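Quick entry, no commentary yet.
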Amino acid sequence: MYVTSAVKCAPPKNIPSLNEIFNCSQHLNTELKLLESSTKVIITLGKLAFDSYCKIYSLKKLVFGHRKIYKLDSGKILISSYHPSRRNTNTGILTWDMWIDIFNVAKSISENISY
């Protein structure tokens, strides 16, 4: 397992600018390329992470949503999840059970993928 982020700084009010997203995408792209051969399942936490991943890999027509699962042409599995922000967890948009489920799904999928 490897955890990274699309934006590497803590911008004011936790709202990154398009410039910050673009600048950090160079680092994210490098990280993803280094992990390319060992990655089976990708979980994106939030729409920003989902959109960033899709942009780097030129994935079109994928729609963000919680627990959306996509089999990519590369054979990898992409799972999108709501971000575990205070706003999402305090309002119940993302519950503890939903959060645990995402990782259980990813684990189950990764155990059944062979390269």
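second:
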Amino acid sequence: MRYCVQIVGVGGQGVLMASMVLGNAAMRLGYKVMMSEVHGMAQRGGSVLCTVRFGDVESPLEAVGNADVIMGFEPAETCRSLYLGNKGTEIVMNLDPVYPSLVAAGFEEYPEVKDIVKAIRKETKNLHTVEATSLAEKAGKAVAANAVMIGVVAGVKGFPLSKEVLKTTLLETVPEKFKELNSKAFDLGYDHIGSQKE
């Protein structure tokens, strides 16, 4: 078995933390794990891409088009990263945009999120959308949006890492004072994808 998760977003969204949780959870279950990160402009809100591969893997890099799951922390970044997957790839996308500085300054326009969703749905039936920031706020703080995303991916059809192991690993990764927040956020994400399947 070989499994690949591509995690995309922008700096400050917790992409790197999510990749560590997935990688550590896979190791806990006895998988061989390899990871790579591309985050040159991450601290300035630039694109971040993390690859987490586990199972029968020999390299941290995955061929384009071979992702089993794309975790998109930001809508435009998710759309830009569709080439990493194929028709069978499951896509989890946070609907809450992070506006680049040129958009925030009024020099450029950010596409309508509903148009991004429509464009992705033309390419695949396997899109799972979530307002991760809103769910994180419901749990207590917007900063827990990455825990929501991990909860959602735990519920994706065929995902080989169990909900229990992912949640345990997440809670071991965050500081003590944020454990309750992240636990609630994870559960809200997991319940959300369950409600989408019904």
